[in-house]
Specification:
11% of the residues lie in helices and 47% in strands. It is mainly beta. The protein has an 8-stranded mixed β-sheet with strand order 2-6-3-5-4-7-1-8. The radius of gyration is 14 Å and the shape is globular. The protein has a single domain, classed as Barwin-like endoglucanases, CATH 2.40.40.
Length: 115
């Protein structure tokens, strides 16, 4: 039996950009992507701490070292610049493997830099 289990989490990143007229996705600074074990095009859940919105999208790379967290397309309506969000991804794995799995969790600073 396979189960869905937390793979990666960026806890309390700050929205730096919101662009309604861009093809949908979330842009994440490549430094944060690397630290959180995330890859481009990966499906992620976005949980807005500020307003309670929850939705899914996919990752695009934002400039390394920029601190960028940008929500684009329709998702831009669910956030405002300055909102804090949680970004999560899940993996499907065998139940027994899941028992020993340790997710990658990072806590960026207020400028979305890896601590």
């Amino acid at each position: 039996m396979n189960i869905e289990i937390l793979k990666s989490k960026i806890h309390k990143a700050k929205i730096t950009q919101s662009n309604l007229n861009y093809i949908g996705s979330i842009g994440i600074d490549e430094d944060l992507m690397d630290a959180a074990n995330l890859i481009e095009s990966e499906k992620v859940g976005i949980y807005n701490i500020t307003n309670g919105e929850r939705f899914d999208t996919y990752i695009i790379k934002a400039e390394r070292g920029s601190g960028t967290i940008s929500l684009n397309g329709a998702a831009a309506r669910k956030v405002a610049v300055g909102d804090y969000i949680i970004i999560v991804s899940y993996a499907s794995m065998d139940f027994e493997e899941g028992k020993s799995h340790k997710p990658t969790i990072i806590f960026p600073d207020d400028n979305n830099r890896v601590i």
